[in-house]
Amino acid sequence: MTKLRILSGMRPTGKMHLGHLVGALENWVQLQDDYDCFYMVADWHALMSEYQNDTYLIRKYAYDNVIDWISAGIDPKRSTVFMQSDVPEHVELHMILSTITPIGWLERCPTYKEQMVELKDKDLSTYAFLGYPVLQASDILLYKANLVPVGEDQIPHLELTREIARRLNYLFSVKNNNPPLVPEPEAKLTRFPRLLGLDRRKMSKSYENAIHLSDSPQEIAAKVQMMFTDPSRLKKTDPGHPAECNVYAYYKVFADRLTDTLSQDCHQAKIGCTDCKKNLADLLINIVKPIRDKRAEIEKDSHYIKKVLSLGAEKAREVAGKTISEIHKAVFG
Ligand code: TRP
Ligand code: SF4
Hints:
Layout: E1 5-10, H1 18-31, E2 36-41, H2 43-50, H3 56-71, E3 80-83, H4 89-100, H5 103-107, H6 110-118, H7 127-130, H8 132-142, E4 147-150, H9 155-172, E5 186-189, H10 217-225, H11 246-254, H12 259-267, H13 273-299, H14 304-332
Parallel strand pairs: 1-2, 2-3, 4-5
Helix pairs in contact: 3-13, 4-8, 4-14, 8-9, 10-13, 11-13
This protein binds tryptophan and iron/sulfur cluster.
């Protein structure tokens, strides 16, 4: 039986952190056993928000991110790991989909409105940024992906992708009594508890409040010691409120087995925050260590990642080229 196809992507706008690990990467690794997986560095999408900054950083983060993907268990022999801009077919399909996507669909997209407000320091009132979901739809439909593992924030983009797919199929094929050109993909939700930054704000590179997968044990220990705890617990003898504590939230995500005891000990002031954080730091160091060790090994071969991406682009282009010629034919005959 042929495996269902999966495609997902990440924008190379910063280093990978623990939020990416539990929110996406661990899931990506698992899915490799049962699906035909395509994992993509969305560098065009990164350019849409970074075009005014040092754009050469996009390449730097792209390579850096792929090292972390592989270090965390993505196997380029089983999965197709590639960079969006290495496969020009994305841009071509983007053009075709642009012709059939009503502007209203894009203007109404909730992520569009949110991002414009959230990223106030950037001028996102560009032609390309409005079309962000159209490029994302191209990424997905080009590989005829059945499932797209994403976080909840991406659901509107998946909905748009399905609508665009339906319209593409109808206008260029179904209307003429031919079979659909592409399947309507489904979101495969990553049910992850939202991991907040060290300061309890959203984890974000602009706040510098994340633990990176490439951080050293010393860096992790120092970052954990800076974490916010229950704000009402001033002395070690005060009873703590785990529900109000971000350190506890990290335990929930990374060591749920310990949380019953910790909750009691904290309530009864049997454990102090310094010790509690020290234990969390040890836990996180142990989670990050194998990834970091593998990273050091990969970095010994300075060409390795380039080779992975060039092979990945070759594999991706085989599939993408086929889809594009089918669609081209359906459109222009
Ligand atoms: N928009 C996605 C994000 O910011 C990244 C992305 C680009 C993507 N193309 C994709 C995700 C295709 C899934 C499928 O997280
Ligand atoms: Fe949070 Fe741990 Fe302190 Fe309780 S003991 S408030 S869980 S850091």
